[in-house]
């Protein structure tokens, strides 16, 4: 582990304390205000100019000199559920210890420790765990496109994520007249099940959540009786998937009910030679580890931002994503600290790389 000597505010002990304090503040989606307020008070101790914006995102800025801008964006919200916060056997437990308070805390500490010659913007976004990603959309509306972007999600401290599947969310609603259970006419509950079966048929037998190049359906929820039914369906989409064409075809195959479109974001992917990917993998190598790059079949705020910002980007963060949303969600403290070192080193690398990109024809600015 790197020995940092810039002062107690940047020590490993302080970094662990920051993460534990974040874990002790419950922040399920739509209830992130307490955590945002806490970070707005803490970030100035790390040198950040800080605000909580109109959407509820906490935004911290460090400006060391004229130079490129790198945005590091993680999310404040977690799924519901309580995991008692405790430190045990070198692990820190708590809801969000993986998804995704540890990546966000690592970004805060890495930005404060780095020697980046330019502007760093660290964002704790709201509502990433919801279909609409309102926090990331507000950042798109209110911030200038940065020269590079790092998304904070659990990749494992020695792994860089190149991309994610997209996501389509919709609801199917149907009602039917009251009748005896033995009447052969379709009941609302049966029609909702039929809709789900049509979704699976349309996506085909190769549909899978295990493959990046195939769609993957999920029946998120269903509330039904013989008179009314509502089903929330989510489809993880590969590159090139057309959500509107899919919904048009699905509507044509349903005899009753209506489909309500909720939201969709396309899949995204960068290449191995992306400057942010190169900076992160080089930083991992400097620790003596072999970097891994991969794509994920879930969705993140990278999808939302990549839709409009065509800049170097990747996703990175300590934490084992197998433990996302788990009842024993935890992070290995040594891996959290290693992730801070990797991010800090990568930011230093980007100091020399990004000005060349920005100055080139068609560069990020």
Give the tally of β-strands. 16
Query: How far from one another are the termini?
Result: 36 Å
Report the CATH architecture of the largest domain.
Answer: 3-Layer(aba) Sandwich
Q: Structural class, from secondary structure content? A: alpha/beta
Oligomer: single chain
The percent of residues in helical segments reads 25-40%
Keywords:
single chain; 365 residues; Aminopeptidase; Alpha-Beta Plaits; 2 domains; four-stranded antiparallel β-sheet; 9 helices
Layout of secondary structure:
Blueprint: H1 12-23, H2 33-42, E1 49-52, E2 58-63, E3 69-75, E4 86-88, E5 91-93, H3 101-113, E6 119-125, H4 134-142, E7 148-152, E8 159-164, E9 166-175, H5 188-203, E10 216-224, E11 228-237, H6 243-253, E12 258-265, E13 268-269, H7 275-286, E14 292-296, H8 301-306, E15 313-316, E16 330-332, H9 333-359
Parallel strand pairs: 3-6, 3-7, 7-15, 8-14
Antiparallel strand pairs: 1-2, 2-6, 4-5, 5-16, 8-13, 9-11, 9-12, 10-11
Helix pairs in contact: 1-3, 3-9, 5-6, 7-9
Give a description of the structure.
- The chain is α/β, with parallel strands linked by helices.
- The protein folds into 2 domains: 8-164 and 267-359, Aminopeptidase, CATH 3.40.630.10; 166-265, Alpha-Beta Plaits (2-Layer Sandwich).
- 32% of the residues lie in helices and 25% in strands.
- It contains 9 helices and 16 strands.
- The protein has helices at residues 12-23, 33-42, 101-113, 134-142, 188-203, 243-253, 275-286, 301-306, 333-359, and strands spanning 49-52, 58-63, 69-75, 86-88, 91-93, 119-125, 148-152, 159-164, 166-175, 216-224, 228-237, 258-265, 268-269, 292-296, 313-316, 330-332.
- The strands form 4 sheets. A 6-stranded mixed beta sheet has the order 1-2-6-3-7-15, sandwiched between helices.
- A hairpin with a 3-residue loop joins strand 10 and strand 11.
- Helix 1 packs antiparallel against helix 3 (101-113), helix 5 packs across helix 6 and helix 7 (275-286) crosses helix 9.
- It is elongated.
- The relative contact order is 0.19.
